[in-house]
Fold each of these.
Amino acid sequence: MSERQILLEAHEVAKHFGGVKALHDVSLTIRRGEIYGLIGPNGAGKTTFFNCLTGLYRNEGGYFVFDGVKLAADAPHKAAEVGIARTFQNIRLFGNMTAIENVMVGRHLRTGAGVLGAITRNAATRAEEAAITRRAEELLHYVGIHERAHDYAKHLSYGDQRRLEIARALATEPKLLALDEPAAGMNGTETEALRVLVEGICRDGVTVLLIEHDVKLVMGLCNRVAVLDYGEKICEDVPAVVQKDPRVVEAYLGGSVA
Amino acid sequence: MDTLLQQLINGLTLGAVYALVALGYTMVYGIIGLINFAHGEVVMIGTMVAFTVIVSLAGSGMSPLLVLGIGLLVSVVVCMVLGWGLERVAYRPLRHAPRLTPLITAIGMSIVLQNVAMIVWGRNYITFPPMIDKQVYELGGASFTNVQIAIVTLAALVMLGLIYLVHRTRIGMAMRATAQNPHVASLMGVDIDRVIAMAFVIGSALGAVAGCMVGSYYEIAHYQMGFMLGLKAFTAAVLGGIGNLAGAMAGGLLLGVIEALGAGYIGELTGDFLGSHYQDIFAFIVLIIVLMFRPSGLFGERTGDRA
Amino acid sequence: MNDRLRKSAAWRQHWVGLLLVGATLLAVPFIAALGGQAWVRIANFAILYVFLALGLNIVVGYAGLLDLGYVAFYAVGAYTYALLASPHFGIHLPFWVILPFGAALACIFGVLLGAPTLKLRGDYLAIVTLGFGEIIRIFMNNLNAPINVTNGAQGITLIDPIRIAGFSFADTTNILGLTISGPQKYYFFLVALAIAIIIINVRLQDSRIGRAWQAIREDEVAAKACGINTRNIKLLAFAMGASFGGIAGGVFSAMQGFVSPESFSLMESITILAMVVLGGMGHIPGVILGAVLLTGLPEALRYGIEPLQRALFGRMIIDPESLRMLVFGLALVLVMRFRPAGLWPSSQRRRELTESTD
């Protein structure tokens, strides 16, 4: 595998809370253009891994190399800056802002108008604002909730909130989109729509890292899958192989497989 | 050397008072996250009530200690009722309001109480009648009085009582549970309204005790005295880690000592550039420095101890 | 066609509204003057508090940072003006030099205070800012020795009024047969400044920066994940708020001709905060209403209570000064009780509140 093909490399990432080891030297590689699944039982450390990657936590050991550069992700906004966008397991939208405003906030990073621009409203600022609005509208279209553009985020349905969160993340122009259990709480139809959306995002050139509980969704969607158990990576391969790995079966069924 | 010891003794006395008042802030904050700005005024009312009782009983021929005791008792009861009433009338209806709403209410109540006190007790300084013959003791060049001993002892006893209450009684357990998670506590059958009311009542009682101490220590009272006292005590609570009982006690003592030492040594420290009238800034400077390095106060947020 | 008609009707309404507001603003100083120049001064103070409340609104209302020491920046602006335009040091710089300088200085103070403390959680920030406000006040009170910088508690007197090309704002002049007093001149100066400040606020609110502030207030973690450098953006709010405070301070100095530490007590910070919250946090018209009401109410009470008591009881029963503050305190409590989101909240906040109660 050449250097160019690799987007993210995690090197023996370790994180503990007090005496509890949440991540135990986890290493994995994500290739450009793939959908990479991260699965594991509850409390296996998936979200902790996410939080380390996106700078929300500071990992005690190991490091990440993203796009050929070692991440100094000591602050979440820096992770977003280099091109890692994320969603949250328990949706975190700006509830009292409209859907389109939420996406517009996502454009913050890639735009530059400051206080002076805001006060004078010069031509450059007006053009930038127009571009922000246009891009936000496009993204709402893209995820299929443009009809709700002017509704408050908190008034959207659960599935639409998930989509809005994805649109907001895409607004930061990520190279890697990290989705934390996007299908949680969705019904079959919604999950299917989500699958189509994620596939589309990947086809449009954004690499996707997916944490998911819904094993069926992961197996059908991902190019490769890693399995975490008690903070350790026990397996990393294409879905077909992972599914049959005895350690994975054991992790999920609690060692009752003889 | 004698100044150091002297300042430590004075600081300890002052700190004991701060600690008692700080407990009132921290208990309420720990449970409902409200900075009860009116708490300083509750303390002031406590001082004023004690003053009125003592003055009116002074000529009755009762023993001075008994008069003091009655004054303290009446003041504690009045403040408990006041604290309960404040919560019931002003804060309870705002339980689900935006965060700053109850803060403004607290400020409003603070203004109301101050001006009620001014109408009742006048706008001048009130001199506390000295009920105890002041005895001065000498220790290694420093002097202290029996009033100071009484203040520190009483404060220690009251705090021990509070610790017992919070850790060994049913209501204490309910308070700790509510501080941790009000929703779950209510599911477990804890009467949240009662717990919150208790936090106010107990905090106000402590405030009344502190108020009586201030009155007998400085032998003076004023309707505006609660404001600065409350401010310092709140600073002490934050210094120790607001919401944390032990933190409030330690923060209060620490603040008292820092202030006393600061006032005693500021001239020497700055080559007489700053004089002792800068005393009041120490509290705040120490606070800012501590919070810069320990953003949740000295004793952090040991949530298990929040009451 | 119909649509265009409706639109022009809306426009006409818009303009009629603006004209009415403009006419009222023009008439106020002359109507107020009927009751004496004191009322014009009160109107001026109301506008000054509008500046302050709008400045604090950026910090509290937009960015959600509880600042209890806002008056410190007001003091910095006021003392800057006082020291650079009075016989105290014998320096007399023109106001258009000092006002921006005072604003910049207040801004620097804001950054100095904000940079190390903005990572603190809400209420901790509140007490630190409160402490900062007190520190500034204590220094102003005591910096008269060993070097006399602030003249201590006596304050600084004989501060130059605002002058534009020999036209002083302090004394009465006749323009086209109309007699305009000093306070009335200041009134128009203040209104002009207020309009500028309101426009700046509205524009900030509807900008990239304004959205970032709102995002931080809504959910800081999510805002960070969106790539917002929350520390810098909060600092920006702090600095902007401080600059407004600095400008207000400079104008205050010029208008009063006198400053002393007494004007910059904690109570002042609290009153400004009360204006913001009582009016409707984050909502510009609400904040303006809050500032005007809380300036006007105590004054109205000052003039109303004495005659009222005499009429009711035939003599003074309660000291009018304390009764006035008592009513003020009660008003705060009652408004918060019955309109928890403020007297004139944005439609958004009102909705937020009605939802949380059901």
Note: The two ends of chain B are 40 Å apart (CA to CA).
Amino acid sequence: MDLVTILDIAIGGLLMGGIYALLAMGLSLQYGVARVLNIAHGEFIMLGAFATYTLYTAFGINPLLTLAIVGPIIFIIGFLLHRTLFTRLRISSPSPGAFESRSLLATFGILFIIQNLALIGWGANLRAYSYLNFGVNLGGAIFTANRLVSLGFAIGIGLAFYIFLVRTRMGKAIRAAAQDPATASLMGVNINRVLAICFGLGAVMAGFAGTLLSMRVPINPAMGMNYTIIAIIVIVLGGLGSIPGSFIGGFILGIIGTVVTYIEPSLSLAAYYFIFMLLLLVRPKGILGK
Amino acid sequence: MQILEGEGVTKYFGGLAAVSKVDFHVDQGEIAGLIGPNGAGKTTLFNLISAALVPKPGTIRFKGEKITGLKPHKICRLGLARTFQEVKIFSNMTVLENVLLGSLFGCSTGMSSADASREAEELLEFVGLSAVRTTPAKDLTLVNQKRIEVARALATKPELLMLDELMAGLNPAEVAQAMELVTRIRDKGITIFMIEHVMKAIMSVCDRIMVLHHGEKIAEGTPQEIAISKKVVEVYLGE
């Protein structure tokens, strides 16, 4: 293996890992704070991807600019979904454990509804468009510009979110709610609203990941599930609720993915599962988990 | 004037009445004590008042307004705050951030973040935690964690502060400091309702004491009256 191949794999892994990190941060918010293990997470990725595809191919809107359209729309969908469905489930569930299993089942339903609506709207074919599709030479290894740009955006979104959590009033409420929702509400935090905002923000991150993915891979309405599984593996790998953990986990999984793909492409998903099971046996709280 | 009053407050867990038809009140400006053996229902009563639990049946009024059924954050914003028997701090946040949360969310009128920070700093000074303001809350000793809870509750600008066993687990010197803190809080004009097992403390700081036993109120009066009440002595020492 020469140096260029190694660079190719390493940088390729980081480029994939940035997207994985974004997915995982979103799921971390939904599962770590709002306690909803959202199996439909990947459907929001798919919605983001198709929204960008449609806006670009039908109206010629720059895919990166569609982030500004995709974000608010998906936030509202996620926020309302939590306010109507999950808030009700949370109040009617006798225990937090019961809420987790009930909301998990509910998200399966959401998965099928969104996926089938997308099939009606866009059909089952793979779709793709070409944007920033020229090569950039990094030390001999060549990557398309759209992959580099999407990594930059993923890191930028992660940083912005970190600053939001530490600096703002709502960020502090989210961190408090992640640790102890009942006590946070006794301090005057409107907990139902904060959890709905977390769910909405989690969906937005999935949508953003979808927008970025659509620039580099073909999309179809059934694409979500694989990414949901990847997001679950990354939050287990990096530790639930840790932003740096999401990035470390995302990059590790991205690199493992590209290494395995280099050796035998059809084994990459199997390798993810293998890592996942190994991790559950050896270090279930993740690399940075507390 | 009564700032807090409860009428027939009852809570069943399964078939067991944890709190049973309790009538109680707290007067504005006083330090009211709530005592009773373990399992008497004291913390359950606090949970009912702060809306962690909902009484069934029974009504609780705060400043004359019915608060049963309100969400916890609404009750907090009306001016009722509490601390916990087992400390419930936000352990990954700094001491200052814990208190800041109360300032930022505790009262319904908006507050600029600069004002909230200033207020949180003042409260840390008040409880004696300024030196550790940037330390993660989980790294503090129990007594200091309890002080965080007091400062955080005060940050919500309460008119009534409920303290659940503030002095449990503290050594005699710390108990003395805590007693002094309680009187200083009252001197700010805040009414206090406290659960306590440390008899010396509750007898010396309280104006009035209520005694719960098996979920029922069995006595009420000044510390002197409680100390000589035959019923109370029986409950605590056996017959």
Note: The interface with chain A takes residues 50, 52, 71-73, 76-77, 81-82, 84, 88, 90-93, 97, 100-102, 104-107, 113, 152-153, 155-156 of chain B (CB under 8 Å).
Amino acid sequence: MEVKLYKKPRLRSPIMLAAWPGIANIGLIAVDTIRETLEAEEFGEIEPWDFFYPKRVSIRDGILEALEFPSNKFYFKKTEQTDLIFFIGEEQPSGGEKIYAEGGKAYRIANLVLDVAEKFHCKRVYTSGAAVAPIHHTMNPRVWAVPNSPELVAEVKKYENTILMSAIEGREGEGNIVGLNGLLLGVAKKRGFEAICVMGEIPVYLQGLPLPYPRASKSVVEILSRSLGIGIDTSKLDSWAEQLEQEIEEIYRQIPLEIRGQLEKLKYVTYAKPAEPSPITEEDKRKIMKDVDKFFKKRGRGSE
Amino acid sequence: MSKRSPFKVYRKPKFQSSSLVVGWSEDAGQLGPGVIDYLTQRLGGERFGEIEPEDFFSLSGVRVEGDVAQFPESNFYSCQENNLVIFRSAAPGFEWYKFLNSILDVAEHYCGAKELYTIGGMVTLSTHTAPRALLATASSQEVKDILSQYNLARNMDYETPPGQRPTLNSFLLWVAGRRNIPGVNLWVPIPFYLVTSEDLKAQKRLLQFFDERFGLNIDFGDINHEVEEQNEKLAQARLRLPEVDDYIRRLESNLRLSQEENERLTQEVEEFLREEE
């Protein structure tokens, strides 16, 4: 079990962006969009067999030709503003039927990713994921940001369209980030890296569906690109969101009228601490989340 | 802190070199357990080791099957006279790479295993009246050439379809290949309506191969008798249940059944065979 680097690029205090799949793959799509736009070059991988069950076998003329595992690759890009390292994990090493990694394997793979960050003297690590929120799909998703040190809070507060956990009513700055997109933040803290997790909002009623949510990925890309000082074209995410709009509307129409009536109220909700009285009460919001959870019988609310 | 071994070996078998045969306790048509159990009993296999379950199985409780509590077992048997090491196990739910390496560690280091054979049933739309083919996937051209003297289908092309995963047998063959242990995955197509029952004809087909390959001198009298009995039961099912006969007849004519008809046929055959037991 090790990291294999095919080349050792000379990078100046790079920033690492790491992502694994999660709810609607919001973080993964965001980080991968930046990687793809910048045409970052692959330079290494984590040997996968200790972490993953293979995903494909090829048998040719009666001989086992290849066994393919989920990929865990490192990429780099030197830009005028900053040097970047990307880590893209195709799956979380969850084992069994769980979606998210946990325990020893999760800790080991997080450390392997950070070994590379250490080797190249990364000055910061960003991870990305999804934040399940009581929002309506017609709203522009915000980004929830969680830094791993108090020193970063002031910086995060300056990000546009971004909120801290403490700005979300009822949370009092507390919450959970499930899976590796969250764990990496903690392991980075333990190893002395500054790190921030940025999570794009997804409406609570879309969280369990096998659909991406490119609008949230776009919000994350905007935050990251501004923070890194690089321009990223998000038009592909816009077209993707447009394509999915009809499908989402169709799903929305299938929700029973009573629940949909509650969801409609979310169009007018500011769930972050409001400056003016909110048009619906906290009790309303709790009822909406409860009804939606009951209807979809999916995962409980939270962030990944 | 010392590293705990994932396996236990109670005694070291006296092998100069051996062949490893692996079967899983849950397999289509009971192919794996049927063949493994027959071989261990017929060849006087002695249990000499096991893989501990704690790293590889969800031990959150026990599964009850046929009114009886089950527990995942992963046992090694030695058949000294025939230079065979047999491994029978439930399929692990976690840490597959470590589990598969543990099998090979025991077989290689304690038994001098030089080659690997895995057993697996392959679900097909063919009927029980069709002859059972034996398909082989080799780890290399050399292994494929060695197998040419046996009546095997050795030219399979296959790619895992989207949404599915490779079998544990493919994974094991690949791990063995990394350790320079030559091997072969053996597959017998099982009619879909016999998947949860026993496909004795398929078991016989595989035993014939092992008999020939390892010179086991198996007396097939009792097996032939059991196969005939099962064929007779299935013939009775067709006689007594016209719907079953119709479905099988259509399959024999290479016609496809609807999903609902497939399920109905499977259910009817399962129930009939259970009642006849």
Note: The first strand of chain A starts at residue 3 and ends at 5.
